[in-house]
């Protein structure tokens, strides 16, 4: 899978947030390069240096002098001459604290994609009584915090939060984790099968038409690189576990 291999190439770990800098070859000299736009220079340099990946978007970043580039399903920050890039989060610093900068283009895309999701293709744990909020969660079966979140499902549901699971096998496809997710999605009782798998229990190996691969690709598209990843109703993405009451407060229902 492109995203899996690209992330591995960068040496990223699933729950790591370290920013690492890389240098590309020196830019070719000549008047032709000088007349090119930074977008064209960056695209040419990266696709020459890493030909197995395609640049799909280049636009100015909120940090002067840098460009936000989408390549191989990942976002990186690149210098205007295409000679160096870094991969990591951007943060806003203010007198009241520090917050993660969210790419408005990506946020708008997330909202659009969120509205297009089919509830029949997710594994849903409905709220107890009135549904006050629906949160989609990209999940794996083998990650510790995915299991912790699932073990507290009654707490989320009791607070009026419906959890809709989307598959995101961190080991990629194919993998044993992906196979377990497919088996859960193909089970007659999907909720029970997924819960058993997250508890380390064996579940029957099943195969059917399923959305696991499509959801994995969707997760990479919206910025998932760790699980659990909570896709909030407003389109925001929260990487990592949140306890029921904290999630309810962030949703404004508590």
List the helices and strands and how they pair.
Blueprint: H1 2-10, E1 20-23, H2 31-35, H3 38-49, E2 55-60, E3 66-71, E4 74-79, E5 84-87, E6 91-94, E7 97-100, H4 104-115, E8 123-125, E9 133-139, H5 144-151, H6 153-158, E10 161-167, H7 176-186, H8 190-198, H9 212-222, E11 229-231, E12 237-239, H10 244-251
Parallel strand pairs: 9-10
Antiparallel strand pairs: 1-5, 2-3, 3-4, 4-5, 6-7, 8-10, 9-11, 11-12
Q: What does this protein look like?
A:
- The strands form 3 sheets. A 5-stranded antiparallel β-sheet has the order 1-5-4-3-2. It has a 5-stranded mixed β-sheet with strand order 8-10-9-11-12.
- 36% of the residues lie in helices and 22% in strands.
- With 254 residues, it is an alpha+beta fold.
- Strand 11 and strand 12 form a beta hairpin.
- The chain folds into 2 domains: 91 residues, Disulphide bond isomerase, DsbC/G, N-terminal (Nuclear Transport Factor 2, Chain: A, Roll), CATH 3.10.450; 132 residues, 3-Layer(aba) Sandwich (Glutaredoxin), CATH 3.40.30.
Give a concise summary:
It is built from ten helices and twelve strands.
The CATH architecture of the largest domain can be named as: 3-Layer(aba) Sandwich
Q: Which spans of ≥5 residues are poorly predicted at pLDDT below 50?
A: 1-5, 7-21
Q: Write down the oligomeric state.
A: single chain
Portion in helices: 25-40%
Distance between the termini: 40 Å
What is the helix tally? 10
User: Would you tell me which CATH topology of the largest domain applies?
Assistant: Glutaredoxin
Shape: globular
Number of domains: 2
- From the alpha carbons, calculate the radius of gyration and give it in angstroms: 20 Å
Strand content: 15-25%
Read across the widest sheet, the strand sequence of neighbours is 1-5-4-3-2
Largest sheet: 5 strands, antiparallel
């Amino acid at each position: 899978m492109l995203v899996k291999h690209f992330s591995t190439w960068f040496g990223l770990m699933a729950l790591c947030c370290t920013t690492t800098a890389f240098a590309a070859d020196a830019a070719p000299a000549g008047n032709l390069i000088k007349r090119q736009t930074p977008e064209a220079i960056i695209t040419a340099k990266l696709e020459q240096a890493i030909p197995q990946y395609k640049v799909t978007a280049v636009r100015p970043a909120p940090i002067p002098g840098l460009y936000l580039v989408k390549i191989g399903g990942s976002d990186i920050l690149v210098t205007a001459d295409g000679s160096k890039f870094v991969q990591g989060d951007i943060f806003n610093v203010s007198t009241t604290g520090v917050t993660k900068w969210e790419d408005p283009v990506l946020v708008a895309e997330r909202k659009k994609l969120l509205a297009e999701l089919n509830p029949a293709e997710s594994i849903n744990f409905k709220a107890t009584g009135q549904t006050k909020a629906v949160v989609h969660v990209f999940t794996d079966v083998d990650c510790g915090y995915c299991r912790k979140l699932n073990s507290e499902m009654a707490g989320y549901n009791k607070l009026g939060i419906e959890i809709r699971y989307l598959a995101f096998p961190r080991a990629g496809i194919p993998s044993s984790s992906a196979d377990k997710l497919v088996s859960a999605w193909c089970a007659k009782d999907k909720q029970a099968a997924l819960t058993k798998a997250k508890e380390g229990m064996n579940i029957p190996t099943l195969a059917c038409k399923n959305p696991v691969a499509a959801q994995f690709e969707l997760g990479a598209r919206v910025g998932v690189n760790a699980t659990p990843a909570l896709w909030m109703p407003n389109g925001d993405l929260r990487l990592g576990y949140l306890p029921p009451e904290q999630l309810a407060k962030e949703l404004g229902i508590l």
